[in-house]
Amino acid sequence: MTVPASIIKLTRQVGAVLTSRRAVAAAPVVAVSLVVGVAVLSNRPDPAKVETLEEAGPPALRLVSTSQGVGDVIDEQAKTKATAKAKQKAAAATDTSKKSTTTEAATPVDTAAPTTAPPATTSPPPKPQGTAPETSTNLIGPVPPEPWPQGCCAPLTNMGFDSPYGEGGSAVAVKVSNATQADPQTGLNRADLIYEEPSHDIGSVSRFLAVFHSRNVDKVGAVRSARTSDPPLLLPLGRPVLAYAGANPKTQWIVDVRQGQGWFQQARENHSGASAFIRQNSTEHGLFVSRNRLQDEFGGVTSPPKQQFSFLKEGQTNAGSQPASRVDLQVAGTKSGFIWDDNSRMWLRFQYGRPHVNNENGAQIGRSSVIVLTTRYQGSFADYRSLEAVTFPMAGESSASGQAWVLTGNTVTQGTWRRNSDGSLFDLKDTNGNPIGLQPGPVYVGLVSAPPTIT
What we know:
- The protein is α+β, with helices and mostly antiparallel strands.
- Among the domains are: about 5-65, no CATH class; about 165-300, YerB-like (YerB-like fold, 3-Layer(bba) Sandwich).
- Helix content is about 15%, strand content about 25%.
- It is built from seven helices and 24 strands.
- It has helices spanning about 5-15, 20-25, 25-35, 75-95, 230-235, 250-260, 290-300, and strands at about 60-65, 70-75, 170-175, 195-200, 205-210, 220, 240-245, 265-270, 275-280, 285-290, 320-325, 325-330, 335-340, 345-350, 355, 365, 370-375, 375-380, 385-390, 400-410, 410-420, 425-430, 445-450, 455.
- The strands form five sheets. Strands 3, 4, 5, 7, 8, 11, 17, 20, 21, 22 and 23 form an eleven-stranded mixed sheet that branches.
- The protein is globular and about 50 Å long.
């Protein structure tokens, strides 16, 4: 059944008039409601053709993911009615079977709102068993991770500097491809902070938002396009540089608006900051960027980063932490993980069944802390087929929240995360409400839709 062109045109017009980020974030729901009124049996788009929105109309279905999994959300009211009807039938059958017996008191229905209060026991929760572990045994490479500079106190690592710009250097955030064609990446191992987030649909590869500050690193890549989920991760940093390959018109509109509001300074190929980009070839994974050139050009209008997480003091550990040696997780369609290494005192990253290394020297990517956060995945207003991880409060919500697993040192602490606004830090607390801190060093944050597996 073909969707009339007038309906598609109307859905695009609805998305175009929405002006605030929270309003436009609801646009997929509006578009889907209009489309479902005439057709709900449209085929899914080819995942290999979801880079832009211009060549196709909005899909008939909207993918939504929670910590319980992924489903097609078409008509929540119909689903609720069906559930209620099934319960009525079950109740009627029970009444019939009990005609000759003594009537029992009905079980009261608990209508209270779910609580987030800590459990009565102080025993640590069991380790999650979610993402299927990688079965390859070749997950630790021959070249260990590079040691991190000793000293204090870089805001993103609480360790020292070897960057020529020192503590006064700007935070530079780069969108880095995680497609197989771009692996191994260049310079990713020296990022102070790495976010891994969805880039397209639930089965597609992830993408990195890598933040550089304290390390001596210049060439970074391969550079890819921005996503609507990036600005809320950048605002808490202060005013960083955002380097990316480009964006579709709606995402670019958001980037322009947020830059105008002082959230960050954008830099992209063939536009502002173009001299910092190096194109090695014409493929989509052939673009790289010079961190030093970005710093030289935008250092006067950007700033050093603000601290993003709390750090533990020497000898201190998190309350309720348990020993851990490995974590397997999945961001969108990319399975990856980390293994604890006693020699380097770091978590060594692997993906695609092999060690995840730096392209220039083969050093495996190492992190002092690995943070795994469950988030809602929803279609971006800029491209309904591209998922974004919701780390910010949506319209009508006072906060965004989810489950959290914090691996720091050779331990894991389970708890929750919460953000009350776009500019809020991730508030990490264990199951008893105690703050969760990190050992000093570089940090990884994985934004997942299902729990990891930790051993």
